Amino acid sequence: MEKRHLRPWMAVLFVLAFALDIFVVSGFLGLWFGVWGTLLHELLLALLAVLLAALFRADLRRVFPFKWPRASKVAGTLILWLGTFLAAMAVTMLVSYFFPQEVLGAGQGVQDIVVSVPVLLALFLVALTPAVCEEMAFRGGFLGCLRGMKSKWAGILIVAVVFGAFHGSVWRMIPTAILGVALGYLLVETDNLFYSMLFHFVNNAVPVLLLGLLSLMPVQESTGDIEAVQTAMSSHLPLFTVAVYMLYACGAPFLIYIGNYLIHRGQPGYDRGLFPREKRKTLLALVGSSAYILVIGVVMLLASFGAIMRGLMPY
Fold first, then answer.
1. Which residues contact 112 (CB under 8 A, 6 or more apart)?
2. Most confident by average pLDDT, 75-89, 106-120, 140-154
3. I need a surface site. Which of 60, 137, 192, 220 has the fewest CB within 10 A?
4. Using CA atoms, how far apart are residues 188 and 67, in angstroms rounded to an integer?
């Protein structure tokens, strides 16, 4: 049977199928099977992607490309994740400053799963399973329909926005979409789902491991710490906290650039070192963007100190 390429109009069916699973079926699975409903919902998501691609007689190896990973690309993926993560966290903290209750509530469901099961099981349910299944669905099937578009960024951005929206909260949409852009870029540039899955896994595993460390503390003390953080965030997020994350984010442009370089290392345009002469303008742009973010963070930090001195903030 002749293999076909997925077409942009087919993306509509992928999105409808994913929406049915995420917004309807997952709720019933959660009621019937508890935390295991999360696993079933994720597996169904990947299965839908494979079934639809097979229905359209697409080449499954092209839609879901897997290749043996290379060390430089793995390192690039991890550095790219760190840069993107810092940028997304800065945005999240900025939004949390104005809407603390909404942002805290948006992530409560995932936190409930993490604290209700052992750490290794939480890693499996919250990090590994979504990394594999969601990447097969969104970067495999969905983006596979749009990879034939003239602009690669059009497909990457469309999938990233839908990916963010499908996380069920407008408050999580923007930072999740930022991560989605990096995930789509990884797939398009490497033609290997392994790297986007690795990126996704690390991003989800970090909060699981942090909560796991908290769980190692004495029960009353760790519970009190979590409740104290939730209470503080639900009432007001200190400007000082936002400023600290902005200072962290000033390194994001360079991390993203270095990660991108390692992903393409040895390819044309990336075979003359990290900052060859022809990329002086790029270096200046990186310095300028980092300096701009740094200035914003410093201004926020000074403003928070000034407010503390005037007694206008609880901190």
1. none
2. 75-89
3. 220
4. 14
